[in-house]
Amino acid sequence: MKWSVALKLGRVSNLPTVWSNVLTGMALAGAATADCRLLLLVVSLSLFYVGGMFLNDAFDHGFDAKARPERPIPSGQVSAAQVHALGFGMMAVALALLAWAGYGYEPFTQWRPVLAGLALAAAIVFYNWHHKNNPLSPLVMGLCRMLVYVTAALAVSAIVPHPIVVAAGVLLCYLIGLTYAAKKEHLGRLENIWPLAFLAAPVIYGFDLALAQPAVVLPLIMFVAWASYALWLLRRRKPGDVPRAVISLIAGISLVDAILLTGAGQILFACLAVAAFVITLALQRWITGT
Fold this sequence. Notes:
This protein is mostly helical. The chain contains 13 helices and no strands.
């Protein structure tokens, strides 16, 4: 398989949003800025993401043959069997890395990150297997991102702290709105707009955080401006606007992380989350994000 095909299958332009999720999960669980498990978790959760994207194309190759024939499998650049094998293989390696994180570093969290990783793998596989015509698929996709927070948290903490639970709920709402728009991407239009109201969750929670931590206002303004741009694209609905809005909202995940991190007083990590947002936008110019 050519590298260009692998990069396209893995939607690697969106990986920085996974990295900011890892930062958020670790930071809200009380990890130190220089925690030595950070790189290990970034690699592991990146493999879950890329492996999941491979499986998305593998499970969807029949649909893509009709709706998106330019995708790597229907265009004959790679076989569905090969993509299946690589997708599951990456998730197996990701689980092994989580075991290393749980048993190789103090304080030992042992089996906890592995269990969370197994739940994440199950959610990823279920979503890819049964997301077409499934009205609950946005919820399942949101669960996948929530489990990134939880997995990162349980790699450094024996429990899931309350801030992680709240942050996961906020991210879930955002992903429900985002995934609804993404499900309609191949149509180039949206029949209903009410699910997009879930995108307001980070704004509502951001205002609450800003009451105690005024610095939240800066990433909150950035998020509101960027989400407004994406919603404007969805409202305009010219050819290509829905896909552009979707990848814009995906990049916005890192701005949600910046809001949460700033609210927790993790300014350095918040700056890294904003950097992840910028890097995602830059990469999306070269590699499609959906």
